[in-house]
Amino acid sequence: MKERNGKKSVHEAMGMEVSRRDFLRTTAVGAAGFAVGSLPFVPFTYGASTPIRIGMIQENTVGATAYGYWLTKVARASVAKLNAEGGISGRKVELVEYDTKVNPAWASSMFKKLILEDKVDFTMGSVHSGVQMAVFPLAEQYKMPYIGGGAMAAGLTGKDAIAYYSRIHTHARMQAAAGWKWGFDNLGKNWTFLVADYAWGHSLAEEFGSRIKAAGGKTQTILAPQNASDFVPFLQKVDPESKVLFTAFLGAPALGVMRQTVELGLHKRLQRYTVICCTDGVGQETVGKESAGAHYLSYYPRYSSQVPKELQAYDKAYRKAIGMTDDAKDASDPKNTATVSHMWTMWTTPYMIKLAVEKSGWKDSKKNADFMKAFNTLKVKAGPWAPQGDLVMRENDHQGFHDHYLEEVQPNLSLKVIARVPKEKLMYDAPVDLRAKL
Amino acid sequence: MASNLAVAVLNGIVWGLIMALIALGLNLIFGLLHIINMAHGALYMLGAVFSWYVIELTGNYWLALIVAPLGVGLVGLALERGLLRTIEDQPLVTIICTFGIMLVLQQLVLTYFGGTARRIALPIPGRFRLFDLQYPVMRIVIAAISAAVMGGLWIFLNRTRYGLWMRAVVQDREMAVALGIPVDQVYMWTFILGSVLAAFSGVLAAPIVSVDFMMGREILIMAFIIVIVGGMGNLWGSVVTAVMISLIHGVGSIFVVPSTATVFSLGFMILVLLVRPQGLFGE
Q1: What residues of chain A have any CB closer than 8 angstroms to a CB in chain B?
Q2: Overall pTM > 0.90
Q3: How far away is chain A from the Cα of B212, in angstroms, using its nearest Cα?
Q4: Pair B39, B105: CB distance under 8 Å
Q5: What's the ipTM?
């Protein structure tokens, strides 16, 4: 090294001479060591196999966003856990996500993108029955396994069912099977259904109503637009002899109908009953004191204290993994209430995909039919992957069965479980047989 | 039957007066600025959302009724100065621009307020008997406030210098400029006033309905129907039409399914446009 302006270089001062070759060798070895050292530990063999890709469609903007937020959060946590435990058949799992915008046409284009561009192996998601129905033709055309994520129209695994679709959770017919008798015996025999004027609302009114009428009760059905904000014109048509008011709306109208029922004083002569879908993801403090005394049919107790004892350990681990508190709030945002009754589906679905892949020996899309057969014969025991309890799939209609709960809003606005309905009590006859179609 | 009719008429008037406030703001902006403000529903929603925050902080609905519209007025000021002024006299561009503003406001509220609907407690609980049915007192109060605000607006437009300037600009903009009226200022204050009226309606409706980021969407459609039927640019035509359409829907709901009664309102609009394309009170 030459002396510059009479000053010695650092290396000369320290008695070191470094050639260009030494420098390159040292930095190359150092960089390689740093790169290797900084790699995260993953239980996969690099280059051994391609990842398994699960495509997911969810309602993240426009409407049903509380569902989209939580179902996405839970799906990500589930896939992370799956990867931490070795992935599926030793292959890493990747989640590819798109927003449906609650727009069936848009959702279809995103679903097609998942299949053709993102080359996903399996698909799941959406709480919207219309969106799910819109992507059915694509799932059928490309023989793409599609596991639903919260949509409740009975027809999805009934008259509109397709071979490549499965639903692991409840829907209107199962809810009616689970909840009508309790309501009939405990609340009254004369019912008014005030429901949203689309497939889901119709399903609930028909499924509950037909059972009430068959048992000798009386029913009245009032349909209102899903986006209604003033319910007075609808509530004033409630039969004066009705004893039970069953409502079914999502989002803001669900709160509106509940509070306006009280504003008109109807809560004094009517028992109020609904499915938790109406206010899942809405804190009781938000629903307000108007909800005290109302009854909900739910699919997972909102508070950890209300979870059956034998499931509490699984529930605790599940809540921790997804970042949900004991009282169903977002651990990072206490004002954000979880969609507890719906979101467990996105926790269990990736695990059930793993079970079906392993059971069917699935390697690629050539064995999609075998995968579907394996998926629809699964019996998942309560455990870390099934905190909601045992879950049984039915091969005929690709429908899953699980326990339900009846909850009552207490005067302090907490939700108390007053009855548990075992899945065996809500197994209705399969409306279709898809076995020969795979 | 008598009780149903009484509730339908009363409720029709109440909703008509709330809708009239929204439509007035929309019509004011169109009449003077010739802007078809697609963001008007979003400003209504923003009023309700701001009021929710004010009530969370102070617990006072009546304070929110003042503060929230003023806050939305500031948003209106920023929109008028920052965006709409730059695309003045380009109707098509303003439609696209205000539509974009609507989407931006909705998504901002979704991001910070969240997707879950929130509730505002009734500041005046209680109800009174109306034949066999009951009716909430607060709705009557809301109707009275709406009527009072509309009265105030009439006085402002007809008895103040600024109101005179606004009417002058509507009639002949060039002459107004020639007479020394600060047209630029009038435009700005008109947009702010329209925004404040939308927000005020949002705060009034919030305790009845629920507050959520999509609440302005349906209201916007109904507000446009009212403005078109009443006559674009005719403020008081909007008020009469809003009450008429709400009454038609309310009374119609007694005889048919309420969803079908909406067809009556739309049928009324079609009929009016066939007979008087300029609207009931349009010139």
Answers
A1: 61-66, 68-69, 197, 222-225, 227, 229-230, 232-234, 236-237, 240, 251-256, 259-260, 263-265, 281-282, 286-288, 335-337
A2: no
A3: 7
A4: yes
A5: 0.79
